[in-house]
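Researcher: Structure prediction, please.
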Amino acid sequence: MYKMLFFLTAVLLLSACDGVETPANLEPRLYVGGAVGVTRTEATVTGGIIMYGDTPVPELRFVYGADGRMDMSSPAVEVDGEGRVSYRLTGLTAGTEYSFRLHGDNGRVTLGSDTCVFTTVPNDPPTVTGLSLLSQGPTSVIVEYGIVSDGGEAVTATGCRIRDVASGDTLRVAASGNVGDTYRVRIGGLRRHASYEIRPYAANAVGETVGGALSIVTGDAVVLAVAGELAELIGGDVYGFTSLSLAGPVNGDDLCLLRRMMGRAPDGSATEGVLVHVNMTDAHIVGGGGSYGASRYTEDDVIGYGLFAGCDRLEDVALPSSAKVIEKDAFLGCVSLERIDIPADIVEVAPSSGCYGLQAVEASPANERYKSVDGVLFNAGVTEITWFPMGKGGDYSLPETVTSVGDYAFRECNITRFTLPPGLEKMGQGAFYGSKVEEVVMPARLRLIPTGAFQACRALRAVRLGAGTELISDYAFDGCPLEHLYVEAAYPPVCNDNAFSTSYDGLFSKCVLHVSSARLGMYKADGTWGMFDNITGM
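Model: Predicted structure follows.
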């Protein structure tokens, strides 16, 4: 009986299961596919969903975090046509292991995939460029380098490693400042007549990178610990030096002795000095001491008026790297000097007269105020000429960028013909004073011919004034044997009372004035221009 009942029950159950369908409300299954595009701070996590029946697609998002916490969440992600999802994680920490999984919620149940892990790319030490030597003195150098990459971490230290080749001793000098990714380092305290290897370094939390070596050899120097010690250090051998390097603070007493060594006494008379090569790169001019000559006294970081005046044997001089100002006529009468180098920190320069052999005035590449082009000194933007070397000869064309010529910029120079750029708008007084110029064409934008512009130009024969000329200042052509003066201005320029006052006899009778044919009557009727005996149209 019992066996029959069991059989009937089994038959009924089997009959009920025959042809059963999958339930329509089975939950989806989530999965993760790994991380791709992993960098130091970003990664793309991937995954997907497998749907069963007609269950609504749940809202999906990735949860993730470091150290297995997964305490962060992405925004909701969209499912593509094949059930896949992805999201780009940002703001990650370099060199860190992250865990993530796909999370879903359809309002009825919360779903989750398996957990996957990835590790972000670790940061690197910084990358540095090679060194460039900006300037060098007997016991110091200024070098420059760049940091190409910080390696993903903030740079914590940078500068230069210095190794004394002979002793093997090493030291570090930290960079004192930077402009963008470029760093400058001044390295002092080096031994004289010694070889060094200098390498840039940069460090961050990951490590330190050391760049390639720059090899240098230092020269000779007299190092002053205290200003005023030069006489004691030199002793009785004042006239035995043809070359000398100075380092340390120097005052008026030191410079007075230096001038005697260069052949010039305080009163301007000649001495037996034969010093012709001077390196003051590591010297620091300070106020104090007596007069160095002509009742002139030192000021901090100033190459003073007449400091090298009359030193006609001086062939080359390296100025203090700490100098800020070069005053007018600091090199007055230095006829043997062929080149002057403007240090990096100079902010003000005035030219010197009487440097007849001067071929070049070169600004340090590190100087931010001045720039040299073919040995001519300009402001940094090459819009204003500051100092033209007297020793240059022939013809000269100013760069097209120049808009201003400084006071006495071409004083006593040997150029015979100038080509001035059309954009020139301003000219300083005495700009061509005493030069050998024979012909000048002034641009149309120049309105004012300044005081003494061509004074003492004893070879000047022809000048053409541009259409914009409005005023002729005093003594503009004093001492000029002009033969032809061309004036393109439509209306006669205003002339100061002494505009045509000159030590040259016969300007009005010998010089032909050329003006617009349509304006002949106007010029002839003018009280000043009408004084020219020969006025012709052009």
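Model: The two ends are 145 Å apart (CA to CA).
Researcher: Thanks, that helps.
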